Amino acid sequence: MVAFEVLRAVRVADAYTNLVLPALLRKHQLSGRDAGFATELAAGTLRRRATYDAVLAACIDRPLRKVEVKVLDALRLGTHQLLAMRVPQHAALSTTVDLVRSEVGPGAAGFANAVLRKVSRQDLDAWLAEIAPDRDTDPLAHDALVHSHPVWVVEALGEALDAVGAADEVGALLTADNVAPSVTLVARPGRSSRDDLPGEPTPFSPYGVVLASGDPGQVRAVADGVAGVQDEGSQLVAVALAEAALEGRDEEWLDLCAGPGGKSALLAGLAAGRGAGLLAVEKAPHRSALVARALAGADGVRGVVTADGTRPPLVAGTFDRVLVDAPCTGLGALRRRPESRWRRSPQDLEVLVDLQQRLLASALDLVRPGGVVLYATCSPVLAETRDVVAQALATRGDVELLDLAPQHAQVPDCAGPLPGTVQLWPHRHGTDAMFLALLRRTGEPDRD
């Protein structure tokens, strides 16, 4: 029922799995192994939706669009249990059929039983051999069905890999997108240390640990707000800005797109350790409130401003370090946001790229000459990474691109699509596919 309600919330209310699931687990009082099962059932079903729909289409004598949506959601849940989880066939069938009976009716339950019995006649590999397009003839369609990504996403990720000389790693990346990520915690400097947290130290960030199991909310440091849940790639973004070489003073830091506050909290601790302060800006009021909550009790916080980062009420040329963690397609975080791949479209890129260009331009105006801007996206798509940075470099005579490689010597195979940039990958580094570019303001802009 929890997994079914997650799918319904995603479908009806455009909910995010990672936000709606905890509330449903509490509502149904699930914890431990039951919570883990419900999480995998919901997230795994959403990740593999395209694959399962192709299997179901082969088992149903009508187009899927003519199947009642509640029944289709249940069939997807049953298919995930049958083809990707260690659930006995009889249990997967009976629980799914019972769910359909209670939510829709006996006639729909009989239909679900018949369909799932057809699904259960062979394993996933056999189904893929039967229904997947030939890879030699149509590699995009093949990879899209086998790895359950939209065709345009497969193409965009392939182009991003090709730009760093790794075109042959498309399958590995798509496979990694379908593996549930481990929970990674971050210590917030000045308030906690990595030694205070359970789990194995992260290989690249000096502030993180990978939690072996359990609810991160039950970790005392997380519950107290002195540590948080944060992907290692996001930690490296904050660290990259903090460790960048700077000319002159180092007192005023700015997070221009701060919501929901994880990077701000790490930056605030790093800033306070040097006697600097962090100002956070976030446009959406509800996300601004999340930033304020993440920063509550932290030293080195100048405040949280609810404002549009493209035209914030701030004085130009006053900040020493600026982070632009720009809104993006999120195609680098498909492991943890399984529904994102089905929500985004190529048309979204035009709007997002325009916003990213304006945010980066705003950041470059706000930083002082000699100061640095770290531009980051949770997407490897070239339009959002290479092209945005290249546009700023081409249109401004007061900006130079700095080399991030020396700061990331401990991270193998992370060269980005522009010299000096960094691109992290789920299949190589076990992180979200974060892109990082460091720019220095060299002087006053040419307004001609």
Helices, by number, come to 19
Question: Could you estimate the helical fraction of the residues in percent?
Answer: 40-55%
CATH class of the largest domain: Alpha Beta
Kindly name the structural category.
alpha/beta
CATH superfamily of the largest domain: Vaccinia Virus protein VP39
Q: How many structurally independent domains?
A: 3
Report the portion of residues in β strands: 5-15%
Mean pLDDT figure: 96
Distance between the termini: 62 Å
What is the overall shape?
A: globular
Main sheet record: 8 strands, mixed
Query: What CATH architecture of the largest domain do you see?
Result: 3-Layer(aba) Sandwich
Q: Do you know the CATH topology of the largest domain?
A: Rossmann fold
Enzyme class: transferase
GO molecular function: RNA binding; RNA methyltransferase activity
Active site: 378
Domain SAM-dependent MTase RsmB/NOP-type: 162-442
